[in-house]
């Protein structure tokens, strides 16, 4: 049974209008919001004005193009904004083909289109007034999100990122690209006006000062707006790794039973011992590692040899199988054939009688995700379904596919969230274990489709920004 959506009528068309000089992390923040809201089943898409400018033929502009006295280029930039805004209105109305232009975020499938992000500098009041006017005409709520930053380290890291990965500088050496980009920033600085509570007191806005050092919020009025504010308040941008592992093979895994609170098998205990080695070999600064487990015996046994700070989360407990807890998939098919089929048909939404659905697990995992965004150096030892949900958040896996992701036993997973995607590496312990992967349409657990292809891949890395 489906859980009620989080958004309400008033939240149906929200446009988050990014504001900020180049190299202030606007695209990074935009991408994160898209990923977070999509994970919560709220339709969200990013419209990057730089991509529209490239569609208009200006794909390798030099800094002079961004000179605000240059009227010819001013008109191109206005036209790009017009195009982006037109796509936003069409996307809200459900008849957009903007995917051809802007490939950010994953397919929204059947999600209601609720939040558009207009990713551009939007640096002058004049331009913001134009956007306000257009939002008003189309019944769209505008919410400005400014990233204001004067931290030289953050700016230098962003410039390097852009100089090396932006399509604007493709084929150019890093040094000359960085120099050009710095001059581009100077052009924007000459006209930039920051949001403030005196001049902009009638606007809904959030201003992040040096990412999370100081946050100014003004006129946040709806649930969805406050949710976005809460999320961006938790974002950190220092590079970090997140480590994930299922518990070692359990006795229930061997008996092909689901749920329960059984202990580890002998091979599962071997994995627990091996995990300490894997951490020592692979995790830098592991003396500061924090290990999060569920409250269930199998995850705690898996963590038993790890000499680090440990935290138990009820929210990390396995998906509750309700009346099916302790049964094998074959028994479930025999006793509850309709339920068995219903789950295969829509595994994300199906809720076990007296238990949970994947959607329920996502909702209870939100505080874990929020805390993960704030932390560095965390190893999470948890369960198959829970790991699928966490993995889906970081890897931008569409919700319909997330319950079918293969998360093999006895494998340490390293996630490296980056500005435009997450890199994943699988480290195998080479200790045999049963497979608990059940293919759609059968009650047998077969060989797991070991996600070998997931090695070192960047999923859904959208194009760089302007
Ligand atoms: O959603 P499906 O594919 O059934 O996977 C979840 C199942 O995985 C299992 C193993 O079959 O998890 P785990 O052993 O990791 O705690 C079951 O307990 C759980 O019900």
TrEMBL record:
Gene Ontology MF term list: 6-phosphofructo-2-kinase activity; ATP binding; fructose-2,6-bisphosphate 2-phosphatase activity
EC number, UniProt record: 3.1.3.46
Keyword Signal: no
EC top class, as a word: hydrolase
GO annotation, biological process: fructose 2,6-bisphosphate metabolic process; fructose metabolic process
InterPro entries: 6Pfruct_kin, 6Phosfructo_kin, His_Pase_superF_clade-1, His_PPase_superfam, P-loop_NTPase, PG/BPGM_mutase_AS
PANTHER family for this protein: 6-PHOSPHOFRUCTO 2-KINASE_FRUCTOSE 2,6-BISPHOSPHATASE LONG FORM, 6-PHOSPHOFRUCTO-2-KINASE/FRUCTOSE-2,6-BISPHOSPHATASE
Protein name in UniProt: fructose-2,6-bisphosphate 2-phosphatase
Organism lineage: Eukaryota, Fungi, Dikarya, Ascomycota, Saccharomycotina
């Amino acid at each position: 049974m489906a859980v009620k959506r989080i958004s309400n009528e008033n939240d149906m068309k929200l446009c988050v209008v990014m504001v900020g000089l180049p190299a202030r992390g606007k695209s990074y923040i935009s991408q994160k919001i898209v990923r977070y809201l999509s994970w919560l089943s709220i339709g969200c898409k990013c419209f990057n004005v730089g991509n529209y400018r490239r569609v208009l033929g200006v794909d390798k502009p030099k800094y002079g193009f961004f000179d605000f006295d240059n009227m010819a280029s001013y008109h191109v930039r206005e036209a790009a904004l017009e195009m982006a805004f037109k796509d936003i209105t069409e996307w809200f109305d459900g008849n957009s083909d903007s995917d051809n232009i802007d490939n950010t975020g994953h397919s929204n499938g059947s999600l209601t289109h609720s939040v558009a992000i207009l990713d551009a500098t939007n640096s002058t009041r004049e331009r913001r007034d134009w956007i306000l006017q257009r939002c008003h005409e189309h019944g769209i709520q505008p919410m400005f999100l400014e990233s204001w930053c004067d931290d030289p380290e953050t700016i230098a890291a962003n410039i390097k990122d852009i100089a090396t990965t932006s399509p604007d500088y493709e084929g150019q050496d890093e040094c000359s690209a960085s120099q050009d980009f710095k001059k581009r920033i100077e052009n924007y600085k000459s006209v930039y006006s920051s949001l403030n509570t005196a001049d902009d007191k009638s606007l809904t806005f959030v201003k992040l000062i040096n990412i999370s050092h100081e946050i100014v919020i003004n006129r946040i009025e709806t649930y969805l707006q406050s949710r976005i504010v809460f999320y961006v308040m938790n974002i950190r941008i220092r590079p970090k790794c997140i480590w994930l592992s299922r518990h070692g093979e359990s006795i229930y895994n061997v008996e092909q039973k689901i749920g329960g609170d059984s202990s580890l098998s002998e091979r599962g205990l071997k994995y627990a011992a091996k995990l300490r080695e894997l951490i020592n070999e692979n995790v830098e600064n592991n003396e500061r590692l924090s290990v999060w487990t569920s409250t269930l015996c199998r995850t705690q046994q898996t963590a038993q040899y790890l000499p680090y700070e440990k935290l138990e989360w009820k929210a990390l407990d396995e998906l509750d199988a309700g009346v099916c807890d302790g049964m094998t998939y074959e028994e479930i098919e025999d006793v509850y054939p309709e339920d068995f089929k219903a789950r295969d048909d829509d595994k994300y939404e199906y809720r076990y009688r007296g238990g949970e659905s994947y959607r329920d697990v996502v909702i209870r995992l939100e505080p874990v995700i929020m805390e993960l965004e704030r932390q560095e150096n965390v190893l999470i030892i948890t369960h198959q379904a829970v790991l699928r949900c966490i993995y889906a958040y970081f890897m931008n896996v569409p919700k319909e596919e997330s319950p079918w992701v293969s998360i093999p036993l006895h494998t340490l997973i390293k996630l490296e969230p980056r500005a435009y995607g997450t890199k994943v590496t699988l480290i195998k312990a080479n200790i045999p274990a049963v497979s608990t992967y059940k293919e759609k349409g059968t009650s047998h657990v077969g060989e797991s489709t070991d996600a070998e292809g997931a090695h070192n891949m960047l999923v859904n890395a959208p194009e760089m920004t302007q």
